[in-house]
Structure prediction request, 797 residues.
Amino acid sequence: MTKNCHNDYKMKFSLEEEYPDLSQHNNHMAKALTKEIYEKLRSKSTPSGFTLDDIIQTGVDNPGHPFIMTVGCVAGDEESYEVFKDLLDPVISDRHGGYKPTDKHNTDLNWENLKGGDDLDPNYVQSSRVRTGRSLKGYTLPPHNSRGERRAVEKLSIEAMTSLDGEFKGKYYPLKDMTEKEQDQLIADHFLFDKPVSPLLLASGMARDWPDARGIYHNDNKTFLVWVNEEDHLRVISMQKGGNMKEVFKRFCVGLQKIEDVFKKHNHGFMWNEHLGFILTCPSNLGTGLRGGVHVKLPKLSTHPKFEEILTRLRLQKRGTGGVDTASVGGVFDISNADRLGSSEVQQVQLVVDGVKLMIEMEKKLEKGESIDDMIPAQK
Amino acid sequence: MASNFARILSSKRNVGILSLVGAGSLSVGFFLTREQYVSAGAQVRRLYPASADYPDLRKHNNCMASHLTPALYAKLCDKATPNGFTLDQAIQTGVDNPGHPFIKTVGMVAGDEESYEVFADLFDPVIKERHNGYNARIMKHPTDLESSKIRGGQFDDNYVLSSRVRTGRSIRGLSLPPACTRAERRDVERVVISALAGLKGNLAGKYYSLTEMTEKEQQQLIDDHFLFDKPVSPLLTCAGMARDWPDARGIWHNNEKTFLVWVNEEDHTRVISMEKGGNMKRVFERFCRGLQEVEHLIQEKGWEFMWNEHLGYILTCPSNLGTGLRAGVHIKLPRLSKDPRFPKILDNLRLQKRGTGGVDTAAVGSTFDISNLDRLGQSEVQLVQTVIDGVNYLIECEKRLEKGQDIKIPAPISQFK
Prediction:
C-alpha cells in the first residue's frame, strides 16, 4: 500500500531527523506531542494507510491562530482515534475540558427535552442555527479519501436527502455545476461553505480535487441544509432568521434521524462509539459535533471588560459572523456552545438558550447605563 | 538514503568516482530499464477501480489534463516509485488548479528522480507539449556552462534595470520537495550549506536559515528580489511543497549579494546570479563559475546532482527540465509593450514576459521581466545567447519607436539548434 510503503521508507531516518520543529508552535497537537510519543507511533498506520505525519501535518504547517487555539491534528478514518490514541487522547483531554480515555459520552437528540428556547428577543437575535457533522461508517475521512470514495459518499448522501419529504423536501446542488453567481449568493446567505482558503483546512489535504463531489442540499424553505464533503462527510445545519432556537433544534433532530435511517439501510450508518460519540475529522468536533448558536447584537456587552469571562462561565464562545476564522463586524457576534464532548446535544443547546437570554438582559441593562455586576453568572 | 550505485549512476564525470564502487554493483545499476523501475517500485492497493478515481478534468486547461486519459490513468494509478510516490500525488496540483490566467501550467510534479521513469507514459507527452516537441525517449539534451562562448551581453542601462540567471539543482538520492520527508529536506540543507561554506573569493558568503531569520531581514530580502515567497501560490501548496514550512528552508548569498542559493523551495536548490544594470555577460560568467564550484564541492563529499542525458538536470517541475535555466532582465519598454505586435515579437524571439514579482504576477507600469521560454533541448550557453540577442532586438525596437520609426517582427528563430 502506498502510504505504508512511503512510511516504511521514512523509517530509515532517525527519530531526531524526522521529528518536527514545534518551537514556534501553539496548538493542541504541539502541546501534546513528545519525541517519545512520536517514536512510538511513527511506524504505525491505520488499515487504510493513514500515518502519524498525516495526522499532524496541519499542526506542523500552522503554528498558531490569532483568534482561537487550534487543534493541529486530524483523523483520516475511524481507526485513527484508536491507532494514534497516545497522541489523540491527550489532545482530546486538553481540548475537551479534561475528558478521560475512560469517559463515556451521552447522546441525546430528543428535542422535547429542551426547555424554552422559542422566545429569544428578535431585536437582538438576528438568526439561530444548529449544526453538526456526521461521518459515514466504512469510508475514510476528507483528509485521506480518494476521489472514488468521496464520490461514493456523495452518491449515498444524495439518495438519503432526496428521500426526504414534508418540510425537508428540497434539492441537491453539486458544486461542480453551480454557477459562480449561485455560489456567491449561497455564501452571502450563510448557506454555503467557503471555497477552501483557510490554511488550517488546506494543509490537511481536505481541499484536494475541489470541487469534485462537493455540494449542498437544502430544503425549499432554506431552513435545513446539508453540506457534502467539506471538512466532514456531512455537515447538517438547521437555521432560520430570528430567535426561535427550539424550532431550529426540533427540525435539526428530526431531519438527522430521517437521513440516518437511509444510510443505515446501506450499512453506512454514522460513525459513533460510546466513548467519543460521533466521530468527525477534527478532534474538536467529537461527541456531539454540535455547534448551536445565534447571531446576536451585543455592542455594549461585547466591549465590557468582563465579556470574555461571562462567556467562559456560560460555556459559550464568540466568533465573527463570517465563521471560525473571522472577526466580528458592527457589534454582531456569533455566540455558540464551546463544548462538544462530554455533554449531550440537548444540554449544549440548553446552555446556548439560557446563556444568550442572560446576555441580552445584560445588554439591555447596559443600554440603560446600569451595572451588570450582580448578574455575572457562576461557572456552569 | 539511496544506495551507492544509484547515486553515481549516469554521472557525467565518472572516472574518479567509478573507483569508489566495485564494478559488480555498478553494472546492476547501469542496466535498469524503465520496466524494471516500474516493477521494482511499490504497488498501490486501491479500494476502487480506476474509473471511480479518475479525476474530472473537463474544466481543466493544463498539460497534465491534456494528456491524462482514463486509459492512461488506469495504467499508471496502481504504480508507485520505490519511495512510494504515486500518480495521484504527481497530478494533484493539476487536479486542484484547473488553469492559470497568465500561463498554461504543467499540472504535475515529480516526487523523486524515479518519477520521470515510473510515470513516463504521462511525463513524456507532457514534456513534449511543454518543450516544443522534445522527445525524451530519443533526443539528447546538451549541457554547456562555458560562459566564454557568449557574444555581447552588455545591455543599455537606460532600458535594462537588472540582469539575472537562475537554475535549479537536485541532490541525487533524496526525494524532491513534493514528497520529501523532514529528514530528507534537512539532509538537503546540510549537504548544500556544507558545500557552499567552501566557496571563496567573490563567491564567499553566508547562509540564513528561514527558521532563524527575523521578519525584518526576511522582508528586506523579499523586497530586494533575493528571497523566495512564502508559499501562497496554490500551484505550489497543492503539490505539497510547502509542508513543514519553514523547516530546513533558507537562503545563502555571497557577501556582494550577486550570487544566491535558495534551499528547499520548489526545488532542492535554486541557484541565482544577478546584479543591477545590463551586464548579462558578467552575470552568466559568475553563474557558471559558481555552479561548477558548488558541484565540485558536493562531489567531494560523495554527492551529485540529478542529471541524465535525455532530461538534463532533473527538477521538480517538468517545465524546468534540461537546463532549468531562466535568464532574464527587468526592462523598461513603455512604447514597445503597448504595440500590438509585442507578443508576436517576443514569441518569435523565444522570449516570455512576466510581471516583476515573479511567475504568478502581472506587470507594473511598463517594466517587464523578459526571459527565455525554453529550457530543454538547448544548452545554457545557447539559451543565454538567445536572451541577449532578443533583448538587444527589443531595445532596438523601443529606440526606433522613440524616434517615430517603424519596427519589424523578426523571423522566428529555430528551436533545438
Summary: Chain B has a mean pLDDT of 88. Chain B touches chain A at residues 1, 42, 44-49, 52-56, 80, 82-86, 88, 92, 95-96, 179, 181-184, 186-187, 211, 237-238, 242-245, 247 (CB under 8 Å).
